[in-house]
Each structure stands twice: as C-alpha cells, then as structure tokens.
Write a structure and sequence with these properties.
heterodimer; A: alpha+beta; OB fold (Dihydrolipoamide Acetyltransferase, E2P); five-stranded mixed β-barrel; 7 strands; 32% helix; 29% strand; B: alpha+beta; 3 domains; six-stranded antiparallel beta sheet; four-stranded antiparallel beta sheet; 20 helices; 12% strand
C-alpha cells in the first residue's frame, strides 16, 4: 500500500460518503421542510390541503373555546389583517393565552380550517416568536419594539 | 463598590490577556526564555482577575444588589440561594463571564500542568489561548457589561425564568461550557503546531487529555440538558432536534472524531493534517454554538436578547477566529510531514472511517440547523426543519458507524485480516441474533426497524464485551490469570470498553423509547381511572401548594398494574409569583424497563382535569449510557500514560532520579 493508493482509498470513501449524504439530505429536505405562513399568506397563496405547514400569529381575543369536554380546543389566529380558525386536540402549552403570539404546526382541511397537531407558545413571557413579529410587521400590526423585546 | 471592583477586574484581565497573546509569541520567535515564561505568569494573572470579576458578580446576586441591571433583570430576593447563584449564568452577560472564566481556567491549567511541554510550543499555545480570551473580554466589556449600573434601582428584581429554576439546569450550562471551552485547548495546540510547523506523537499526547476532558464534560452537559428537557418541559421527549440542541451536538460529534484521530497521531504518527483540521473545526463549532445561541439568530429559551450591535461583533469575532485559523491551516498544513502508511483494513483505517462517518453525520446536522437561516437570507421564506429530516439523514449515516464500533478495536495497526477479526466476534454475532429474536418475542413482532436497531445496540455491547473478554483471556486461561490481566488493563482501555458499552446502552434506550412510547391525553374527574399500556392511573384529586416563590396545583395519581399498587405520582402545575409564568412539573416513576410519566393540565368546567400520561420504555437507559460514557472519560483521564506533565509525571521523574542515585551509589 503506497501513500498514493492510500490517498485514493480515502478519497473514494470520502466521496462515496459525501455523495450518499447529499442524496439523503436532498430527499429529506424535499419532504421535511415546513414553511411558515401568516394568516394573510394563507389567504392569498394557494395552499394544498393536507400539506404540513406552520401558521403563526396572535391568538385573537375572545375566540378561544373548548369543545367536547375540554380536550379539543378551537381558536383563531390573526395577524391583524386576516384571521384563520384553528382546531387542536391535546394539552396547550403553559404560556398559551389570548392575545399571545403562537406558532402552530398542522395542515389545512377542506373547510379551510387549520388542524394543528402541535401548538408552540414560547418559554418566556416577554418572548414573541420572530416569525410572528415579521408577520405582524408585514401586515402593519406591529406595535413598537420596546414593548416586546425588553432587553 | 463590589461591582466597580468587578469592572476593574475584567479590564485588568483584558490587559493581561493582550500582553499574554503577544509577548510569548515574540519570545518563541526569538527564543527569549523570559518572554516565553511570561505566558505562564500572565495566564495566572488573567485567571485571578477573571475569577475576581466572577466572584463580584456572584456576590451581587447573592445579596440581591438590584443597582446592577443584570441582577435586577434576572434575580429576585425571594429566589432560593441555589438559583441566585445559578442565575449568574442564566443570562447573556453572566454566561459570557462564565465562558471567559472557564477559558482562563483552561489557560492557567495548561501553564500549570504543561511543565514538560517544549517551551516554544507552550508559549505559543498560551498566546493563542489568550487571543481567544481577548476576543471574548472585548465582547464582554464593549457589548455585554455584566456590571452596568441602574440609575433608579427597582425595589425588587424581575426574577429568573422559572423554567431555569431547576437543579438539572443549574449545572447544565457550566458543564456544557467546560466542554465547549475545553476544545479551545485543542484548538490552541493546533494553531501553535501550525506556527511551529511540527506535529508529532508527543503533540498528540499533550492534546489528548485536554480533548478528553472537554469531551467528557460536553457529554455530561448534553445528557443533563436532555434529561432536563425530559422531566421539565412535560412533553415526555428527550431530544427535539431543536437548533440549540444541535449546536451543542455538533462539537460533540467532531470532538468524538478528534478524540479518535488523535490516537492515530499518537500511536502511528499518521493523519496529522486531518487531526489539526478537526481540532480547528471542533472549536469553531463550539464558537458557532455559543454565539448562535446567544445572538438570537436561532430563537429559543436559550437566546436571551436580540441586539444588532452584539450580532455584528459576534460575526466579526467568528470571521477572525474561524477564517484566520483556516487560512493559517491552508498555508501551513502542506509543510507538515506525512506519517506512517497503512492499509485500508487496519486500526488506522477503521479510525479514519469513524472520522469520516462522524464528520458526515455532523455535516447533515449542520445543514439541517442552518438551512432555515440560509433560506431566509436568500429570500426563500421562513421554513423550519423538524425531526423527520434528521431521522432520514443523520440516522442512516450513524448506522454503519454503530455497526463498526466493536470491530475497530479488534483490528491491529497497519494491516488487518477482516475475516479473522469477524471470526473473533462469532459468539457476539450469535448472541446478537438471539437478542434480536428475544426483542421480536417480547415486543410481539413490533416495528422491524426498531427491532433491528436494538440488534445493532446488542451487537455493539456484546462485541465490545467480547473484545474485553478476549483481552483478559476470559475462560481461555485460569480465572486468576484473567483477573491479573484485568486489573493490569490501562485506564484508557477501560475507558474505551466503558464508553462503547455506554453508547450501546444509550442507543438501546433511544430506540426503545422512540419506537414503543405510548401517550394518552384525557379529561379525568377525581376517582376516575385511565389505562395506558396496561397500567392503570387512578386520579385521586388535586390540592393547592405554596412554594418559596410559586404557587402550585398538585394532582395525585395512584399507579397500579393488574390491581397491584406500584407508585403514587404527584405532578404539579406551578405559577411563579414574579413573572406570573406557569410551568409544568411532571411526575415520573422510573424503573429499569421504563418510566411512568404523568402531567396535569388545566381544569375544565365540570370539575375534570386534563391529564397526560406517557409510558416511556427504557428511557433511563439513555442517561445511564451517557453516565457510563462520562465515567469512561474520567477513567481514561486517570490513565497515567496520558498525563504528560501532570503530577504523576513528576512522581515518575522523582523515581527516575532515585533510581539513578541508587545506580550511582551502587
């Protein structure tokens, strides 16, 4: 085994690994990217029913209600311009409440309702998900940085 | 007054670090031993001042000095003492100071323990170490001063995020930081070696204990963080492929590769250039980890604040550190002499394959973590990448690595006979097949992939154990001989066996809990029972509790199987007084075969409560395996052969002197 052939061997193995990893990454990216939508995006863009996506905004005041004995909940997410109805079954995060920024993950059903299988409210009271801030800014509903980002 | 002392101390530390990063370098160039020796003194002075500053900040937290912005924003007078102290690093400024403290400790440790390092190498290592310190101290002083005062101090503080008020998380950041920062020593050694233009077996011997220390703590830190997420977040998960988890995992993957490649440099004087590159990349990933988390680029519980000034400073520091070191590498690496030759099937070849697989795995994690950032920067919209991505990329890359874990150590150096080696693993192979059949039987033909996964874990464990048995000639020689051989095994060999076994056990836990986890959500009234995976949970009702700085509702569950009492679970839902923030405290009954996990949610109108029950098979194996890996790291560190220049070396030297005296006397 000479130095040259060793280098060849290493190179071949490295390239093979890299190629298979790239293939894996590309296919995985194709299937597993979740796009973020604001309620306005959801209304204006064509969204396939059943395609997994993230929807974020503020939980609209006065829309939260419990269905069927309390495990199933319904609320609306708004970015000020548009509003989308969301249903979710399960325990909501500790910091979930009306008026708060949330991100939900799920898909649209045929009725145009968003069925969430995951609801994320963040770990911190002062925290507003960056995606939600952007969405609010885009719809002109954003009120001041000093209010949310207390540094 | 104390705060001003702290402020003064960090400025003095910066001055010491600046001097330390320049003078020893000049000394090493001119072979001026006084300038070179200055590096050691300066590193001790730097440590002293940083320690003083850290002490001042801790003092401010303990006495709740709310004239400091930092204390007022992150502490509260009613907080328990442990969390007052852990609050010191529960925020951006304090955590940076802790980072710098650990960096200074490592620098001083190199100065103190590296007594028989070549003087020029030592001077250069200390100078590079100080350069990192200069970067961080400047960052601290100009953008993140922990000692900033408030003109109008509030009556009381804003308290620490309640999620962070937990014993597991009190020690998670320091451990993680010892890991991150520990790799700075490997980095400094790599840069110093590039400056010197020389890498040899001795260099690898000096680097390995530092890398091992860092790796051990990083393993512990990640495990602790995952354990915390498991019991504190109340989701019953132990790893979420969250960006902040990934950024600690990437240096771990690269550090593991570095640990293995340094063996090849030490034993065979080969793979030198690659090892240097790995040392640079590992620490670069640590830096990226620290900064990405802190800069708020990736948002989570860890990102304390978004501040553009800091972000730019951070990018600048990253560019200098990573760009600079890689440029130096590109210029100097070709001049390093290549080492010994080996065949593809050999110990070296195995370790190289380990490195390639670990780096590829790390690259997939890197892509998944940063892809959303790239997408956004390129205007591709906001996206997120979840666990399925990693299951389809990271896991397939890891499978061959895990399969080879127990084969590699059996390969001899230079050239190996693969058939012969596999022949030595035939009993392990047979036992693995039995283990797969057993898993098949117990799980009643559960998911095939999970059963095969358990097979991989069994193969790793059995193969590792059979290699160990081989080494001590168990059952092939009288037991007393085996015993003699066993106690003579060096610490690093024990470390290898233990680390690989720990990995196998952790993998078994990860697979089982991912494949056979059972989850149920229900609304229960007091007295009602829910049955999850053959276990009955009777909800006995709730009561109110008052803690030191929170109020809570505590539910009681009686857990039984087939009418036989097992445990009482008392999950809580807490509301912290100051931040008005609710948190979930899960109640967990752990057994060898699995955890019984209960969470209580909100009350619904008709007197029922939402509850969540999880059955997590073998989940504790994950942390047991990690504990074994940490122990393995400590055991290897205790191996005298590794401790070049450590006290043991001194003892040996004394012995040698005694011997020569005796010889002289004779």
């Amino acid at each position: 085994m000479t130095r040259k052939s060793r280098r060849m061997y290493v190179l071949v193995v490295a390239i093979a690994l890299l190629a298979s990893a790239t293939a894996l990454v590309l296919t995985a990216l194709d299937d597993n990217i979740t796009y973020f939508y604001s309620p306005s995006d959801l209304k204006t863009k064509q969204v396939t029913v059943g395609r997994a996506l993230r929807l974020g905004g503020l939980v609209e005041d006065g829309t939260f209600e419990k269905l069927d004995g309390g495990l199933k909940v319904k609320f609306s997410i708004t970015d000020g311009a548009e509003t989308v109805a969301v249903t979710y079954e399960g325990i909501l995060p500790d910091l979930f409440r009306e008026g708060q920024g949330v991100i939900t993950e799920g898909s649209l059903n045929e009725k145009g309702e968003f069925v969430a299988h995951e609801v994320l409210a963040k770990h911190d009271e002062n925290y507003m998900p960056a995606e939600v801030i952007e969405a609010l800014k885009a719809s002109g509903e954003w009120r001041g940085d000093e209010e949310q980002i207390t540094e | 007054m104390i705060a001003e002392l702290g402020q003064f101390a960090i400025i003095m530390a910066l001055l010491a670090a600046i001097a330390q990063s320049i003078l020893p370098l000049i000394g090493a160039e001119r072979l001026d031993s006084r300038l070179m020796a200055f590096g050691s003194q300066a590193s001790l002075i730097q440590l002293l001042f940083v320690f003083l500053a850290f002490g001042c900040l801790t003092q401010a937290y303990i006495v709740s000095d709310f004239t400091l912005v930092n204390v007022a924003e992150n502490s509260h007078s009613t907080k328990p003492l442990l969390y007052k102290i852990s609050g010191v690093w529960g925020n951006h400024e304090g955590s940076m100071l802790l980072w710098i403290l650990i960096l200074a400790v490592f620098g001083a440790a190199v100065a103190a323990f590296g007594r028989n390092l070549p003087v020029t190498l030592k001077a250069r290592v200390l100078a590079v170490q100080a350069m990192i310190g200069v970067g961080f101290l400047t960052f601290l002083i100009f953008t993140s001063n922990p000692f900033a005062r408030l003109l109008l101090p509030p009556e009381n503080g804003r308290d620490l995020n309640p999620l962070l008020q937990d014993p597991g998380l009190a020690f998670h950041p320091p451990m993680l930081y010892v890991g991150y920062v520990g790799f700075s020593v490997a980095f400094s050694f790599a840069i110093a070696a590039l400056i010197e233009g020389k890498v040899d077996a001795a260099w690898a011997r000096w680097v390995r204990p530092w890398t091992l220390t860092a790796w051990t703590f990083l393993t512990g830190g990640i495990a602790l963080g995952s354990w915390w997420a498991y019991y504190e977040l109340g989701w019953g998960g132990w790893w979420f492929w969250d960006p902040v988890e990934n950024v600690s995992f990437m240096p771990w993957l690269m550090g593991t590769a570095l640990l293995h490649s340094a063996i090849v440099v030490e034993k065979r004087n080969s793979l030198k250039v690659w090892t240097i590159l790995l040392a640079i990349l590992t620490f670069s990933l640590s830096l990226i980890g620290t900064f990405i988390v802190r800069s708020g680029l990736l948002t989570s519980v860890h990102s304390f604040a978004v501040n553009p000034e800091r972000g730019i400073f951070i990018l600048f520091l990253l560019a200098i550190a990573i760009g600079g070191s890689l440029t130096l590498f590109a210029f100097r690496a070709p001049s390093l002499k290549a080492g010994g030759i080996f065949s593809p099937i050999s110990r070296e070849g195995g370790l190289l394959l380990n490195n390639l697989l670990l780096s590829t795995a790390c690259a997939t994690v890197f892509l998944g973590t940063l892809y959303p950032l790239f997408m956004e920067a390129l205007g591709g919209g906001r996206v997120s990448i979840g666990p399925p991505f990693y299951n389809n990329t990271f896991v397939p890359v890891m499978v061959p690595l895990l399969l080879l874990v127990c084969v590699g150590p059996l390969l001899p150096w230079k050239r190996a006979d693969l058939i012969g080696v596999l022949g030595r693993l035939k009993y392990a192979g047979l036992a693995t097949i039995l283990a797969i059949l057993l898993a098949w039987y117990v799980t009643e033909g559960g998911p095939l992939l999970a059963i095969l996964g358990l097979g991989i874990a069994a193969w790793m464990l059995l193969g590792t154990l059979s290699e160990w048995a081989d080494k001590i000639k168990l059952f092939r020689a009288p037991l007393s001989t085996s015993w003699q051989r066993m106690i003579k095994l060096p610490g690093s060999t024990w470390g290898m066996t233990l680390a690989h076994s720990g990995l196998a056990i952790a993998v078994a836990g990860m697979i089982s809990t991912s494949a056979w986890k059972v989850e149920d959500v229900a609304v229960l009234k007091p007295g009602e029972t829910i049955s999850v995976a053959g276990t009955d949970y009777r909800f006995d009702g709730v009561r109110e509790l008052v803690g030191p700085n929170y109020q809570a509702v505590e539910g009681t569950f009686t857990v039984s199987q087939n009418g036989e009492f097992m445990a009482v679970l008392k999950p809580e839902k807490r509301l912290y007084n100051v931040q008005k923030m609710p948190t979930t405290e899960a109640a967990i009954y752990s057994t060898f075969v699995g955890d019984y996990y209960a969470v209580i949610g909100d009350q619904v109108e008709d007197g029922g409560w939402t509850v969540r029950i999880y059955r997590e098979p073998m989940v504790t194996w994950i942390w047991f395996g990690c504990t074994l890996m940490v122990l393995a790291g400590l055991l290897s560190l205790a191996d005298r052969r590794l401790r070049v220049g450590a006290p043991a070396g001194k003892r040996k030297q004394e012995k040698r002197e005694q011997k020569s005296q005796r010889n002289a006397a004779a």
